[in-house]
Amino acid sequence: MAISQFRSKKKSSGGKYKRIRKQKQSELGDTPSLTKLGEKKARIKHRLGDNIKKSLLQWDEANLTDPKTGKTIKSKIKTILESPANRHYTRRNIMTKGSIIDTDNGKAKITSRPGQHGTINAILVTE
Q: pLDDT per position in the chain (127 positions), as tens?
């Protein structure tokens, strides 16, 4: 079934809108990519206006920034420690924005959207 990004068929009061038309192709959404921990796998999506969007399906590296020094390095991801989006994502090793990950250099918080941006950027978390 298609994921619609069009307005609801019902009003906030519970009533229905009149003359609801069919969904347009441009209003359809996409299933979430649910980026997992593993060897690099990406998917290229063709978007409106001849644009291309890269979506990560799996990856095991992150661009890690140290806020004190301002330097950015590539670091290997060991595991996902916390996920604010869904508590079950932690067990399944699924990364989203805001997830806390364990890397070779310490704990870090993901600042990018891996399923949308095609990369994993993170900031070191000081305890």
A: 678 888 888 999 999 988 778 888 888 888 889 999 999 999 998 888 899 989 999 999 999 999 999 999 999 999 999 999 999 999 999 999 999 999 999 999 999 999 999 999 999 997 6
In a domain, 83, yes or no: yes
**pTM over cut 0.85:** no
Is residue 112, in this structure, part of any structural domain at all? yes
Residue 90 belongs to domain with CATH number: 3.10.290.70
The backbone region for 58, taken as left when phi is positive above 0, alpha when psi lies in -120 to 50, beta otherwise, is: beta
Q: Cβ distance 64 to 74 under 8 Å? A: yes
Query: 43 lies in which domain range?
Result: 36-124
